[in-house]
Amino acid sequence: MGKILSLKGVNWQRNGQTILRDFNWEVHHQEQWGILGLNGSGKTSLLNIVTGYQFPTKGEVIVLDRSFGKTNLLELRKEIGFVSSSLERFDSSLKFETVEEIVVSGKFASIGLYEVVTKAEWEKADRLLDRFRLTYLKGKPYHLLSQGEKRRVLIARSLMGDPKIMILDEPCTGLDIVSREEILSLLKEIVKNSYLLYVTHHIEEISKEITHILLLKDGEIFASGLKKEILNDEILSQAFNLSVKVHWEEDRPWLTVRNREDIKMRS
Ligand SMILES: Nc1ncnc2c1ncn2[C@@H]1O[C@H](COP(=O)(O)OP(=O)(O)OP(=O)(O)O)[C@@H](O)[C@H]1O
C-alpha cells in the first residue's frame, strides 16, 4: 500500500467561514499520529473530512490509497475504527446489551445487535475482551459499566472489523488517572495492526506508541512532524499563545504553565 492518508490543499468552509485552511498532510507506514490543538482549532472538522462525513470545499483527500470522490465511502469506512467519548450518547438505548454483544456488534457497524453472529465472530469478540483485560465483565449489561470500562469496551468493539486506521478522539476525557492509564496501555495492542490517529488536549497522553504530531491552530496546521521535534517549549507556547514548558519523563511529555499572567490575559 502507498499512502495511508494524504491531504493536499484541503480547505473546508461553512457559512462563509474558512474552518480548515490549506491542509497538506501525509501519513506514511510506521507512523502513528497524535493530533493536538486548542478548542475550536479544527480537530473534529479534520476527522470529519478524513472519514468522509464532510467534503472539502477544495483540495484532494486520499485515505488508504483511495481517492475521495472516486471511492465508495461506505466500504472505506469499514476499514476505519472510530471511538469518541460522544459515542456514549447511545448509552440510553443500550439497557440490556451485554459487554460481549456490544463488542461483537462492531462487526456490523451497528450499536445494538440485530444480526446473526457466527461462532467465529463470538470467538473473536472473546479474544478482544481477553486482549483488553475485559473478560471479567462478560455477561454484564453495558449500561452498568464505569466510564473507563465503557471506553475500553468501545475500543475493543471498533477492532472487531480489523480497521486499518483507528481514530481515538479524546478517549480519556472524563476519566480518572487509573482509567486513563488503562486506555493508554491499549495503544500498544492497537498499533500492532492499525494506524493510529489519536486526538487529545492533554500532552501527557502522547504515549510512546505515538511517533508524530499534527498541531493545529485556528484551522491551520501550525506544525507537524516527529514528536520530539514538535513537542517543545517554543512551538507549543506559540500554538497555545501561552508560555508553557515541556518536561519529558519516561519518554512521555508533560506540560507546565510558565506564566499565569498569560491565562489572565486570555480570560
Ligand atoms: N458544521 C459547522 N458549521 C459551522 N461552523 C463549524 C461547523 N463545524 C465546526 N465549525 C466551527 O469550526 C471551528 C473548528 O471546530 P472543531 O469542532 O473542528 O474544533 P476542535 O478543534 O475539534 O474543537 P474542540 O477541541 O473544542 O472539540 C469552530 O470555530 C467551530 O465553531
TrEMBL record:
The keyword Transport applies. InterPro entries: AAA+_ATPase, ABC_transporter-like_ATP-bd, ABC_transporter-like_CS, Metal_Ion_Import_ABC, P-loop_NTPase. One of its GO terms (molecular function) is ATP hydrolysis activity. Residues 5-243 form the ABC transporter domain. Keywords: ATP-binding, Nucleotide-binding, Transport. The keyword Transport applies. It holds the Pfam family ABC_tran. This is Iron complex transport system ATP-binding protein.
